[in-house]
């Protein structure tokens, strides 16, 4: 399955590179109104995903801890920090607000003891070089054309 995913993604990325060369010709069709509506629809469809993540995700639904105060506190810290940093005058803080908030959320999760236990082997090296095309390549047309 991974070979099919990698091969199909490589083919799709080549298609995207070719289409990017002629996309400027479609500006008459893709007006700011059309692109704005598409972005709004994508944002509205992500509301459910965001609310599920705020409550603790599907794992929290499975073990009946969805909406636990720890989950809501962690999401509130990250969201508040993003809003506060986006209101600053410093453009670097505004640009880096998501990364800073994720790092702060990770630290808050560590303090709240919400991080998973470390299961990494102790004899693993600090730097590992990946093997190119470890899973191979393949193309699954059902993944490319839905």
From TrEMBL:
Q: Where in the cell is it found?
A: Membrane
Tell me which UniProt keywords the record has, alphabetically: Membrane, Transmembrane, Transmembrane helix, Transport
Q: Which gene encodes it?
A: yicE_4
The reply to whether Transmembrane figures as a keyword in the UniProt entry is: yes
Look up the record and report any one GO term of the cellular component aspect.
Answer: plasma membrane
Q: Name one GO molecular function term.
A: xanthine transmembrane transporter activity
Per the UniProt record, which residue ranges are transmembrane? Answer: 36-59, 71-86, 92-112
Q: Does this UniProt record's set of keywords contain Transmembrane helix?
A: yes
Write down the membrane topology. Answer: Multi-pass membrane protein
Q: What is this protein called?
A: Putative purine/xanthine transport protein
Identify the InterPro entries for this entry.
NCS2 (IPR006043)
Protein family membership: Belongs to the nucleobase:cation symporter-2 (NCS2) (TC 2.A.40) family.
Name the source's superkingdom: Bacteria
């Amino acid at each position: 399955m991974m070979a099919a995913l990698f091969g199909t993604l490589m083919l799709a990325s080549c298609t995207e590179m070719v289409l990017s060369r002629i996309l400027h010709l479609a500006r008459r069709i893709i007006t700011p109104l059309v692109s704005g509506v598409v972005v709004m629809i994508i944002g509205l469809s992500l509301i459910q995903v965001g609310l599920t993540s705020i409550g603790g995700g599907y794992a929290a639904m499975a073990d009946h801890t969805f909406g636990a105060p720890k989950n809501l506190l962690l999401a509130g810290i990250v969201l508040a920090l993003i809003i506060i940093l986006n209101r600053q005058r410093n453009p670097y803080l505004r640009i880096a607000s998501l990364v800073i908030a994720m790092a702060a959320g990770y630290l808050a999760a560590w303090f709240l003891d919400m991080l998973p236990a470390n299961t990494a082997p102790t004899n693993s090296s600090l730097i590992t070089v990946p093997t190119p095309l470890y899973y191979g390549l393949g193309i699954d047309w059902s993944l490319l054309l839905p």
